[in-house]
Specification:
Blueprint lengths: L1 H26 L1 E15 L4 H10 L5 H6 L2 E14 L5 E12 L2 E14 L3 E12 H4 L3 H6 L3 E14 L2 E14 L1 H18 L2 H4 L2 H14 L12 E10 L4 E8 L3 E10 L6 E7 H8 L8 E6 L1 E8 L2 E8 L8 E11 L1
Antiparallel strand pairs: 1-2, 2-5, 3-4, 3-6, 6-7, 8-15, 9-14, 10-13, 10-15, 11-12, 11-14
Helix pairs in contact: 2-8
Length: 340
């Protein structure tokens, strides 16, 4: 009788140990979206009339929205990281998940995994995902508004198997990807190809040729800002400044500093911008349409550079397009500071 009790206790102890390992291993399983990579874009046939329509859209700064309407689908590679940090091996047959773009549900995805993952292992699997035009429709406005930036969110449940028992593990991950460069390069490629293959260029006149040339030069590979500045870089970006508005960059100096900057503006209707460097008091006057003084005033120029010595304090760089009624300016800007 005593032996049976002892065997029973041992069996119970083994069962509890296995149960404990099972429970611990469950808490150590994870699935995350390791990366998102653009595989390709499916395009509608591009013809001269569509390219010319795109050219006209650049006059209002809406070229990307027009170009996006030519997309039939976006193909993505979703890279999932599957980790087992527990002490028991697991098997995962597949993944199923919802896909959201910029917070909007656009469909479901499925990946046939069929992997055994040992303790301490992390494996990365690639899942090809086609997002067609119809399913993207609810998210189109947000993609255009963000100039091609897509926040890809996957949300689902992975069923890990312990000794044939399916264990649900919920997962949710987000990664960002941009299709802006791919769209720009494709449009540029089509313009160049059609220039070579289509004799219509010679019959429609130089005005259209000029418009298309402007698209190529100003939107698809125009001037690049190439300046050499010494110091701590605090601005290195591209800004879109809508007609009748301005953009500003606030920055602070903790010491008397040499501040250097350079910029270049692009647009089909007048490559110019006004750049100002103001302290906080004068920036407030600028905002309120009052008389102000500036440390730097470029006037209306295509490009420029400045080299200033400023006291410690708070400042703003202003890119003003308030004088323009219809054209959005694309401004590349770099600036650095160095204590003196």
């Amino acid at each position: 009788m005593g032996k049976l009790v002892a065997i029973g206790i041992i069996i119970l102890a083994i069962f509890l140990i296995i149960l404990g390992l099972f429970a611990y291993s469950y808490t150590q399983l994870s699935v995350n979206l390791h990366d998102v990579r653009l595989h390709s874009i499916d395009w509608a046939p591009l013809s001269w009339d569509k390219l010319l329509n795109l050219g006209l859209s650049t006059l209002t700064g809406e070229w990307f929205g027009t170009a996006f309407m030519l997309i039939e689908g976006v193909n993505l590679n979703l890279l999932f990281g599957i980790s087992n940090n527990g002490v028991l091996p697991v098997y995962i047959p597949d993944l199923s998940y919802d896909i959201l773009i910029n917070g909007i549900l656009i469909g479901q995805g499925f990946s046939d995994v069929d992997l055994a993952i040992n303790p301490g292992q992390t494996k990365v699997i690639t899942s090809f995902q086609n997002v067609n035009k119809d399913s993207m429709t609810p998210a189109v406005f947000s993609i255009i508004e963000s100039q091609g930036v897509m926040e890809i969110k996957v949300k689902g449940i992975a069923y890990f198997q312990f000794f044939g028992i399916g264990i649900p593990v919920p997962f949710e991950s987000t990664r960002n990807i941009s299709i802006y460069d791919e769209v720009r390069e494709r449009i540029n490629e089509e313009i160049q190809k059609n220039k070579l293959q289509n004799s219509v260029m010679y019959s429609v006149g130089k005005s259209i040729e000029s418009v298309l040339g402007s698209i190529v030069n100003d939107l698809f590979g125009g001037d690049e800002l190439e300046i050499s500045l010494s110091g701590q870089k605090f601005v290195d970006s591209i800004y879109q400044v809508s007609p009748g508005t301005y953009a500003h960059i606030a920055f602070s100096l903790l010491c008397e500093s040499q501040v250097e900057g350079g910029f270049i503006a692009n647009d089909i209707l007048g490559d110019d911008i006004i750049v100002l460097v103001l302290d906080d008091m004068n920036f407030e006057k600028f905002e309120n349409d009052q008389y102000f003084t500036s440390f730097y005033d470029s006037g209306k120029v295509k490009s420029g550079a400045f080299d200033l010595t400023l006291e410690s304090g708070d400042y703003s760089i202003v890119m003003s397009n308030q004088y323009s009624m219809i054209s959005t300016k694309t401004v590349q800007f770099q600036a650095v500071s160095l204590c003196v």
